Amino acid sequence: MARPASVNLSISQLQELLGARRSEIQRLERERRKVERRLEQLDGRIRQLGGNGARGRTGGGGSRVRNEQTLMTMIEGVLGKSGKPMKVGEIAEAVRRGGYRTKSANFRGIVNQTLIKDKRFTSAGRGLYQMKK
Q1: Is residue 91 classed exposed, middle or buried when 0-12, 13-18 and 19+ CB atoms within 10 A define those classes?
Q2: How far is Cα 68 from Cα 92, in angstroms, rounded to an integer?
Q3: Distance (Å, rounded) from C-alpha 86 to C-alpha 95?
Q4: Which residues of 16-38 are buried (b: 16+ CB within 10 A; e: fewer)?
Q5: What pLDDT was estimated at residue 41?
Q6: Percent of the chain's residues with pLDDT above 90
Q7: Which of 53, 56, 68, 124 is placed for a possible disulfide with 43 were both Cys, Cβ 3.0 to 4.6 Å?
Q8: For the purposes of burial, counting CB atoms within 10 Å of the CB of 95, is it exposed (0-12), middle (13-18) or buried (19 or more)?
Q9: Beta bridge partner(s), residue 131
Q10: Other residues' Cβ atoms within 10 Å of the Cβ of residue 126
Q11: What is the DSSP string of 33-60?
């Protein structure tokens, strides 16, 4: 890799550059806080109108979706009502239809891991799960 060309700046010039960058960072952080406050207000208004107020943004500042029931409880309800073995995808879809909210891009995988780990559920075949008897 080629060596970068040397820059001949004095210490005072470097300190001036660093100071300017620090000032710019502080200005941008203040601007970010203002924008975040405005987004929180908009989310609140969306919730008042009946929306979920979920932010479609990625990155920091967002919060995790809170559900009234745990995923395990929701799965237990779905499998209990079914009374027969179900495929993981069917269980995931039924849980979502039941009101479980998630931002996960791979919710089916999360449901699958929950079914494997929780002792209340048992495998009834490849990709099929049921309540333990």
Answers
A1: buried
A2: 17
A3: 12
A4: eeeeeeeeeeeeeeeeeeeeeee
A5: 87
A6: 56
A7: 53
A8: buried
A9: 121
A10: 6
A11: HHHHHHHHHHHHHHHHTT--------ST
Q: Which two tokens stand for residue 75?
A: 């799965």
User: What pLDDT score was predicted for residue 59?
Assistant: 47
Per the DSSP assignment, residues forming a β-bridge with 122 are 130
* Torsion sign over Cα 63, 68, 72, 76: negative
The whole-angstrom separation of Cα 38 and Cα 45 is: 11
Amino acid making up residue 37: R
Q: Which amino acid is at 52?
A: N
Q: What is the pLDDT of residues 26-66, one digit of tens each?
A: 999 999 999 998 988 888 888 888 777 665 544 445 577 78
Is the predicted pLDDT of residue 91 greater than 90, yes or no? yes
Q: What DSSP string runs through 74-105? A: HHHHHHHHH-S-EEHHHHHHHHHHTT-----T
65 near 58, Cβ under 8 Å? Answer: no
| pTM summary value | 0.53
Q: Which amino acid would we find at residue 31?
A: E
